[in-house]
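Posting this for the archive.
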Amino acid sequence: MALHRRVPVILAHTDYIADVADRRTRGERAVLARRHLSILRRAGVDAVCEHVGGDLPYFSRFPFRSAYPVEPLLSALRGVEAMQAEAEESGATLRIVRRVADIARARRAGQVGLILCLEGGMPLGDDLTLLRVFHRLGIRIIGLTWNHRNQLGDGVGERRPGGLSDLGKVAVREIHRLGILIDVSHLAEPGCWDALEVSRDPLIASHSNCQALVPHPRNLEDDLIRGIAGKGGVIGIHALGMFVRRRGRARLDDLLDHLDHLREVAGPAHVAIGPDLLERWPARMLGELWRGTPFGQTRFVYPTGFRSVADLPNVTAGLLRRGWSDGEVEGVLGGNLIRLFTKVWRR
């Protein structure tokens, strides 16, 4: 915890929007502050990269019990508005992050920073001018796809995935021109290589593990890990058990093995914590999440010792036991992300 107090602790991927969307459309308010803030406090977390929309229209299942799904663009706009409202309703315990300095301001004020993100390009349609709109609204990270194909490229759930579309390649250039960070975690491998070739800025794989340890499509091959690191990017570790251990119940040591492997292949300056730990999600959404994909039988089980974000200090202690230096651990907890944000958001 002394390390947690010294440096900004940042989670590279969270999805609190599912719980927020479900409850706000039933009339509840300040959902993040009431249901999740205490957990983040116990973990010593200073900021989260929170996904407010994308290829999964979080608000589509709930508003007015409509028979028609909400368009991804409308759902993403509702997600942005919901998180802005959550920050306003939090009693000054949450702050929207628009620039790197806001993370330090949040720490000094005892707040948790919310870095707004999109997980998939569907809200853009074929109109890249919407990227400027989303940037003005506070979006600072964009994942190009979720598991499926969209207008920008193929996700890892496609059975014979290709790379980025022509529109996707143009989008990469425009996203970086605006100073938005690109996330490739759900993008199929050919698209990841396309993004690395086209981009002039570093990329993030915010919640991905190592194929060398668990051969799952959501995990990264060593060559791709080196490619992301070689461009100055960062890989955030994923906590879901099926990505952590091939068979049997995942343990904290299995998660630490992935972190060790990332340090060996990419170097300690390119490692972070995802963890995409879907804590307190609506149960029915977990059942729907990957239905109709090759991952449809997923059980949302997390490693012993890291079943809650509140257990993050266990990861820190485990890395120290394994011989990581204080400086390396500080980088994993948030320093590496601060460096990445500083480079990409500078525009």
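The mean pLDDT is 93. The radius of gyration is 18 Å.
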